[in-house]
Design brief:
The complex is a heterodimer of chains A (105) and B (515). Chain A has 105 residues and is mainly alpha-helical. Chain A has one domain (2-102). Helices cover 54% and strands 6% of the residues of chain A. Chain A has 6 helices and 2 strands; from the N terminus they run αβαβαααα. Chain A has helices spanning 2-14, 28-39, 64-67, 72-78, 80-85, 88-102; strands at 21-23, 58-60. In chain A, strands 1-2 form a two-stranded parallel sheet. The longest helix of chain A is centred in the last third of the chain and has 15 residues, at 88-102. Chain A is globular and about 35 Å long. Chain B has 515 residues and is α/β, with parallel strands linked by helices. Chain B has 2 domains: 5-112 and 174-476, 3-Layer(aba) Sandwich (Peroxisomal Thiolase, Chain A, domain 1); 490-515. Helix content of chain B is 39%, strand content 15%. Chain B is built from 20 helices and 13 strands. In chain B, the strands form 3 sheets. A 6-stranded mixed beta sheet of chain B has the order 2-1-9-8-6-7, with helices on both faces. A 4-stranded mixed beta sheet of chain B has the order 10-13-12-11, sandwiched between helices. In chain B, α12 links the parallel β6 and β7. In chain B, α11 packs across α12 (237-244). Chain B starts with a strand and ends with a helix. The chains are: A mainly alpha (105), B alpha/beta (515). At the A-B interface, α5 of A face α15 and α17 of B.
């Protein structure tokens, strides 16, 4: 809930075209829910983004686009372990689906 | 170096069906903001009976009648595959709600719990069959009050109602007219924590023949706070619980760190015994009525029973080395420091890899890891996945990164070094400590050599820090004799002296302003 406020405040301050959301959830469903919240609005209608479609693009830390953009040593130190634990393919598929549906930028 | 031991452990559950609706925060919040909700209408049809709770595999595992391997062999979801259970277990019991309400009355030192006279006469007859209640306990319940008086206390004086079988049977009065910290709601939750903690200590004493007067110190590690408006978390649940359990020669104190507190308490108890300050230290925690039905909305939506229908409690006795019980390796402790960072990798490295490095062990050298042992029947339908399984995969992945395991060996590692989650989702109750009872078997009579107890806590829930917390300690088979300090070889000794001399020289140079 508090994170929804933060995303909303930052987007108002810097403009939606300058914001990208990076997620680190452990499951595809939870990642998709968070991505949908920052793009189409909170589907559970519980937080500050209920009915607010910011259209922000969201990427998961295990997606290739993010992985290729960061220092491999840092990535290995911070994410290498979780990359073995989570279902990377299912998450990537879920995230691409949400982005193509709702992302405006 | 003589290490302290885990001498005994107890585990108790309290079936609390009426408290789900009236005291679980998911339900009380819903009643406040959405009183006509479909969820509240459907909920009563999803409440399990006492017999169903007794015949539930994870509950039988919690009180020691079924071991983790037997539970793992039972097909999931476990609520669809009942077992033949018993109320009494090797480690404790599953207490029915009416007897627990009597425990709350016994826990009340300020005449705040008022019970209906006909309820009292019924429950007194049952109490005589339970060895945790003494004759004087039964006397202390008194004869009760008229129901009309109880209704008046609730309607006009802000008392919190107590229900059993959907009928009003008593109330908890507020302990102060204006202080919210002593309001009826807070007093209710604190009496639940005290009574369930005392039940765990009483069972520890009963099941193990422990002399209560031999216990020197009690550390309480639940997630409640007792105090008044001038000292909201003043304490001391530990001493209050010890008093109820007849532990007259002890004092105690409370230790808090959300779900990580039990493992902190275990390490603190071990340190107190190892240092010689005390010989026998009990750690104890009661459970929470607020967490009853916490994931109830998901369970009802998916047409499951409300599986969060029990309050948990546990106690562990830490004593000086007896040459038999599993030793607590106070030299092999893992901790999540302020500067550790919050990525799962940083957390697992701090809690698992660091103590292993110190002991020059591999991840596969720990036979069983006791992590957050939450029951997956509860968490999976609520979208939180299988929590212990996730933890075991992370430990395996760290093993892969350390080169101690093939990536293809992750699943096999989880099966061999992990266990299914059997503990109720009561925060601190499933965290690290549920395996200690079984460890007493596995590390004494069984074939296992080593286990690691890992506790983690979400400090950010208290809004004082964004940090997370965690600690761990290795529990080992007792070598059976006092360990001799390892002799240093000569070259190592020379190296140490040389290093000390270098340090001294550097210090002297520094003092002369030449460094």
């Amino acid at each position: 809930m508090e994170n929804q406020n933060r995303v909303k405040d930052l987007t108002e301050k810097y403009g939606a075209e300058n914001i990208l959301v990076i997620l680190g959830a452990a499951e595809a469903e939870a990642s998709g829910l968070a991505a949908e919240t920052v793009s189409a609005g909170d589907p559970t209608y519980a937080g500050a983004l209920a009915g607010v479609a910011l259209g922000l693009p969201a990427y998961h830390v295990t997606e290739a686009a993010f992985k290729e953009a960061v220092d491999p040593a840092v990535y290995d130190e911070q994410v290498g372990m979780m990359e073995m634990v989570v279902d990377v393919d299912a998450i990537a598929e879920e995230m691409q689906g949400i982005r193509s549906q709702f992302s405006k930028y | 170096m003589s290490f302290p031991v885990t001498k005994a452990a107890s585990y108790v559950l309290v079936h609390a069906p009426d408290m789900i609706m009236h005291n679980g925060t998911t339900q009380t919040v819903e009643r406040r903001i959405n009183p006509d909700s479909e969820y509240l209408k459907k909920l009563p049809a999803h409440i399990r009976t006492y017999e169903e709770v007794i015949n539930y595999g994870p509950n039988q595992c919690y009180i020691g009648n079924m071991n983790p391997a037997e539970l793992a062999a039972l097909p999931e979801p476990w609520y669809q595959n009942p077992v033949k259970g018993k109320r009494d277990g090797r480690f404790g019991e599953i207490m029915p709600q009416d007897e627990f309400i009597a425990m709350m009355k016994l826990a009340d030192a300020f005449e705040l719990v008022v019970l209906d006279s006909s309820f009292v006469s019924g429950v007194k007859a049952k109490m005589g069959n339970n060895p945790v209640f003494s004759v004087s306990d039964i006397d202390k319940i008194g004869s009760g009050e008229a129901l009309g008086k109880i209704s008046e206390l609730i309607d006009k004086h802000g008392a919190q109602a107590l229900f059993h079988n959907s009928a009003l049977v008593g109330c908890v009065k507020k302990a102060h007219d204006v202080d919210v910290n002593l309001g009826a709601h807070v007093m209710f939750e604190n009496l639940v924590a005290k009574a369930s903690g005392a039940l765990a200590l009483k069972q520890l004493i009963l099941k193990n023949g422990t002399d209560p007067l031999s216990i020197d110190y009690v550390i309480e590690c639940s997630e409640e706070a007792c105090g008044d408006m001038n000292q909201r978390g003043g304490g001391n649940f530990a001493k209050a619980v010890a008093e109820m359990a007849g532990i007259d020669n002890a004092t105690g104190s409370d230790l808090r760190s959300f779900c990580a507190a039990p493992t902190h308490a275990l390490i603190s108890a071990a340190a107190l015994v190892k240092s010689g300050v005390y010989e026998n230290v009990a750690i104890v925690a009661g459970g929470s009525s607020a967490k009853l039905g916490m994931n109830g909305k998901d369970h009802v939506k998916k047409d499951l029973p409300i599986l969060e229908d029990v309050i948990g409690g546990f106690a562990v006795l830490v004593s000086k080395n007896d040459g038999l019980s599993p030793i607590l390796r106070t030299d092999l402790v893992g901790r999540h420091n302020v500067g550790t960072g919050s990525s799962p990798q940083a957390v697992i490295t701090a809690l698992i890899a660091k103590p292993l490095d110190k002991a020059r062990l591999k991840v596969t050298d720990i036979d069983k890891y006791s992590v957050e042992m939450q029951n997956p029947d509860v968490t999976k339908p609520a979208g939180a996945g299988d929590v212990p399984n996730g933890n075991y995969k992370m430990i395996a992945a760290i093993g892969v990164k350390r080169g101690e395991l093939e990536r293809t060996g992750i699943d096999a590692f989880v099966k061999e070094h992990g266990m299914p989650g059997w503990a109720p989702t009561q925060g601190h109750i499933p965290s690290g400590v549920p395996y200690i009872g079984f460890a007493l078997d596995d590390l004494c009579k069984g074939k296992l050599k080593r286990s690691m107890i890992v506790g983690k806590g979400s400090l950010f829930l208290g809004r004082m820090t964004n940090l997370f917390d965690g600690v761990s300690i290795i529990l080992e088979r007792n070598p059976g004799k006092e360990e001799e300090p390892a002799a240093l070889d000569k070259s190592e000794l020379n190296k140490l002296i040389a290093e000390a001399m270098k340090g001294l020289a550097a210090q002297l140079l520094g003092e002369q302003g030449l460094g």
